[in-house]
Recover the amino acids of this structure.
């Protein structure tokens, strides 16, 4: 069973956003669907202004390659430089394995944990 | 069980041949470091090499060995007469730089193939140059860009690609620096018209449509999709990889497509898999014909009386240039495809598509009670079902691996991405009902195993030379070299 954290907000495209810290990653459900992640790459840099819905990273598992989108608009203030060297931590600790940190992101359009869980269940059937 | 590598089989001094005495004076090479002596090539006798490769070939699974329902790949049986024709000395012993007067037969075959592909697809002109499907796409998108540029329309940078398209479509547009906009599918697996309308504006280069799409479905809104794209000044690209469903039934050129690549190695029985060689000719409408790659095969002088025409090469007026050093994969691709079309004729090609569609629908009908088919309507040459079973936690990958124990090649798995645990099944027209039934029986048996004995599915395959491969380890710890040159470790 996938884990959904109530402190986080979620995009329908399976990214999480932490309103407290501005960190962004992919959900437990997403990593489970992708299965073992073998490669990841962050495609934005510190200082970039990103728009919600545009690509910030890509992840590749043995099953598929997938784009990771910005859940909110804002300025990139940090990227997790260690993550590309240890992509398997996205599987083992999806809510610890943050990709980038966005400043000034407004989570108003994102789902809360319960809504996102429902969204995941709907897609599974 | 593991076959040693040639390097492991090597024994110092063993050799496969004896050099004759030289008939020129011996000469010592200058000591200028021209040759290195530290290249550890394996030393083997001929029999060692033959047995090594025979052993490896027995691990292989091929369409000559069994059913190969790999969705999207059209792994049809390739008639052996193709092997005879492509080895005819007149084809085999020619060189692309020969004067045209000495290769009129080759040029006539290429010209006729262009004409046949035009007739099959409804396009105004065809190039045979592209080396494979994705190369054909790239060629097609280059022509789309050249067309807009020639009209002085430089705003167009956006390529629309439905989410049910082949993955090479967005990649081809991306390689040309275009912005790719993904258009979602609607509940019936068609292009979502509302989403398409929202993207149609004067920055659209065109739309790349795979039809039938990767769900194996013919887009029910096709005419409306084409109308919308044309209305905003865009061009229609057709991915012809799934042409096997349409031969003699509908022609993309008639529907309003501007450009489409053919996969001769799928639809027209050229062996493929293992990386090629493919063959990806491209057909275009009248308005793109002047942009075709050069050179094109054409009739330079018409036939007069008993004198046959003179075939040769021409350069289209606004040609995008050469896409390949020579003229396409001539013997490997073009001669085989020519043979296939000639052997079938127009009625035969129509039968090909009708049986391909019938076979896919028959399999879907036998399986839909047990496996969920998410976009479930009459399919074309392939269909996509979910590789999971009610009351079991086995996944598509497990089912695929278990199929190998039943001596079938697995279907394409985890594609398209819009279906959970996707298994994409394309039987092709060359399979008889007995084979289809055995395959359906195997999948039904596996569903039963998944409920009653899931471990046997999760740990499959059991009857193959090797068991379940560690794909994660293979991807993370890629080793392509069986020996490491000196100094490799220190130079990392």
């Amino acid at each position: 069973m996938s884990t959904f954290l109530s402190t986080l907000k979620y995009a329908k495209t399976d990214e999480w956003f932490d309103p407290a810290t501005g960190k962004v990653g992919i959900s437990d459900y997403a990593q489970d669907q992708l299965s073992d992640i073998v490669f990841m790459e962050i495609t934005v840099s510190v200082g970039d202004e990103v728009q919600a819905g545009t690509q910030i990273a890509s992840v590749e598992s043995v099953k598929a390659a997938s784009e990771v989108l910005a859940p909110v608009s804002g300025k990139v203030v940090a990227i997790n430089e260690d993550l590309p060297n240890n992509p398997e931590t996205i599987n083992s600790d999806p809510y610890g394995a943050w990709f980038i940190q966005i400043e000034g992101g407004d989570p108003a359009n994102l789902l809360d944990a319960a809504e996102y869980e429902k969204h995941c269940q709907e897609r599974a059937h | 069980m593991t076959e040693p590598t040639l390097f492991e089989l090597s024994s110092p001094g063993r050799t496969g041949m004896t050099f004759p005495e030289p008939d020129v004076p011996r000469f010592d090479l200058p000591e200028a470091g021209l040759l290195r002596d530290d290249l550890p090539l394996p030393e083997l006798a001929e029999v060692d090499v033959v047995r090594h490769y025979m052993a490896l070939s027995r691990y292989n699974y091929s369409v000559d060995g069994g059913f190969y329902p790999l969705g999207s790949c059209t792994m049809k049986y390739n008639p052996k007469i193709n092997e005879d024709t492509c080895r005819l000395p007149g084809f085999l012993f020619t060189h692309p730089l020969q004067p045209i007067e000495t290769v009129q037969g080759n040029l006539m075959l290429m010209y006729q193939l262009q004409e046949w592909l035009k007739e099959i697809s409804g396009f105004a002109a065809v190039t045979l140059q592209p080396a494979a499907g994705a190369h054909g796409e790239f060629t097609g998108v280059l022509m789309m860009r050249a067309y807009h540029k020639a009209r002085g329309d430089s705003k167009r940078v956006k390529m629309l690609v439905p989410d049910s398209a082949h993955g090479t479509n967005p990649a081809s547009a991306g390689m040309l620096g275009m912005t790719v906009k993904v258009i979602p599918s609607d509940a019936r697996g068609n292009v979502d018209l509302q989403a398409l309308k929202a993207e149609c504006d004067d920055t659209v280069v065109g739309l790349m449509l795979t039809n039938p799409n990767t769900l194996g479905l013919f887009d029910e809104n096709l005419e409306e999709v084409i109308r919308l794209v044309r209305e905003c000044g865009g061009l229609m690209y057709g991915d012809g990889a799934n042409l096997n469903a349409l031969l003699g039934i509908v022609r993309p050129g008639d529907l309003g497509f501007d450009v489409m690549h053919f996969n001769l190695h799928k639809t027209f029985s050229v062996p493929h898999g293992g990386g090629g060689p493919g063959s990806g000719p491209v057909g275009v409408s009248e308005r793109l014909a002047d942009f075709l790659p050069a050179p094109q095969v054409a009739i330079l002088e018409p036939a007069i009386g008993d004198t046959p025409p003179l075939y040769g090469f021409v350069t289209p007026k606004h040609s995008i240039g050469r896409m390949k050093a020579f003229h396409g994969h001539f013997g490997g691709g073009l001669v085989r495809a020519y043979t296939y079309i000639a052997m079938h004729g127009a009625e035969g090609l129509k039968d090909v598509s009708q049986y391909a569609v019938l076979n896919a629908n028959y399999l879907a009908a036998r399986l839909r009670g047990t496996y969920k088919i998410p976009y479930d309507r009459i399919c074309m040459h392939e269909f996509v079902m979910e590789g999971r079973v009610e009351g079991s936690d086995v996944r598509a990958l497990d089912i695929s691996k278990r199929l190998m124990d039943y001596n079938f090649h697995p279907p394409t798995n985890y594609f398209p991405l819009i279906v959970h645990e996707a298994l994409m099944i394309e039987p092709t027209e060359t399979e008889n009902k007995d084979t289809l039934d055995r395959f359906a029986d195997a999948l039904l048996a596996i569903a039963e195993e998944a409920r009653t004995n899931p471990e046997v599915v999760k740990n499959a395959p059991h009857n193959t030379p090797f068991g379940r491969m560690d794909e994660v380890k293979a991807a993370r710890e890629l080793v392509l070299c069986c020996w490491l040159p000196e100094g490799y470790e220190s130079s990392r």
Summary: The interface with chain B takes residues 33, 36, 38-39, 62-64, 66, 88, 123-124 of chain A (CB under 8 Å). The mean pLDDT of chain A is 94. The first strand of chain A starts at residue 9 and ends at 10. The domain at 9-124 of chain A is CATH 2.40.50.100 (OB fold (Dihydrolipoamide Acetyltransferase, E2P)).
